[in-house]
Write a structure and sequence with these properties.
- This protein is an all-beta fold.
- The chain is 0% helix and 49% strand.
- The protein contains no helices and 27 strands.
- The strands form 7 sheets. Strands 3, 20, 21, 23, 24, 25 and 27 form a 7-stranded mixed β-sheet that branches.
- A hairpin with a 2-residue loop joins strand 24 and strand 25.
- The two termini are 19 Å apart.
């Protein structure tokens, strides 16, 4: 059970904080904090037979890591009020794969509204990202009418090489490109709310990934689960904390807590039964990510 607390009032997943945990699935087979092995890496292994007075080496076996192609797109703020005829809507686009890739970008807005995509103020229709790299992409929406109702602004990203079902081969089979868990395509949406519309408030989403001792994503004793808690805010929010109890049947992995990618000491953040991370006062629109790991007993 994960809880976001504001001030002294605790709100569970069934309260005023909207939890997306039920909608999220494990999208990776390795812990989110670990970088994927680069494409083209050769994994070699040689065993040794120990005869006491001498050793005999086996033959070498080798495998080459395939290119994993995938795309992730996240709306920085899920909802925001319409305050003018023009609005800049921010998205984070990430390359979760293990090879450099070019990502095609498409913005979608309804009706007579217009949309232009930019990165660092320069118009773009595609970006090139290194493995694990993330860029802020802005969709500038024009022609907004505060009296015309809510406006959904979407940004889609697709790998230039193509996309398909997770695990399928993309493009030329000889190139060794495989679609990642997201199918090498993703889309995210921010809803611009009409005048008088209510703020969405804080949102907490939770995802999980599994790494078994054999390197697979099988859920089995000895496997490690990485939990990722993403708290999103579209307005100033005071005295915020994230709480998550360690599930039954698992044990906490010491030293595994991170906040926005920075390691956190277990002291004052793990009490033996759960993880507690204080965010303090959130000044405005923001996203904070907490991660930690448990082992399945």
């Amino acid at each position: 059970m994960t809880t976001v607390r504001k001030g002294t009032k605790a709100t569970g997943t069934g309260g005023g904080i909207t939890s997306l945990a039920a909608l999220c699935v494990a999208l990776v087979v390795a812990p989110a904090a670990a970088a994927p092995t680069p494409a083209g890496t050769t994994i070699r292994n040689v065993a040794t037979l120990d005869l006491g007075t001498r050793t005999i080496a086996s033959n070498e076996v080798a495998l080459t890591v395939a290119r994993l192609i995938d795309v992730a797109v996240v709306a920085v703020v899920p909802r925001a009020p319409i305050v003018d005829v023009r609005a800049d809507v921010a998205f984070d686009v990430r390359n979760p794969g293990n090879a450099e890739q070019r990502i095609l970008l498409v913005a979608t807005v309804p009706g007579d509204a217009t949309a232009a995509i930019s990165v660092d103020g320069s118009p773009v229709d595609a970006i090139v990202l290194a493995p694990g790299e993330e860029r802020r992409v802005v969709v500038t929406v024009g022609g907004l009418d505060r009296g015309a109702g809510d406006v959904a602004v979407s940004l889609g990203g697709t790998a230039a090489e193509g996309h398909g079902a997770p695990g399928s081969v993309i493009g030329d089979p000889a190139a060794g490109a495989i679609a990642g868990p997201g199918g090498a395509a993703a889309i995210a949406t921010t809803v611009l709310t009409a005048a008088g519309g209510a703020s969405a408030g804080p949102v907490l989403s939770k995802t999980q990934s599994v790494l078994a001792p054999d390197g697979s994503a099988r859920v089995m004793p000895g496997a490690t689960i990485t939990y990722r808690l993403e708290a999103r805010f579209d307005a100033p929010t005071p005295a915020v904390a994230i709480d998550d109890r360690i599930p039954l049947g698992t044990t906490f992995v010491p030293g595994s807590i991170t906040l926005d990618g920075a390691a956190q000491a277990d002291a004052a953040r793990f009490d033996g039964t759960g993880v507690h991370v204080a965010l303090g006062d959130v000044a405005g629109a923001a996203v904070h990510v907490v991660q930690f790991k448990v082992n399945i007993q």
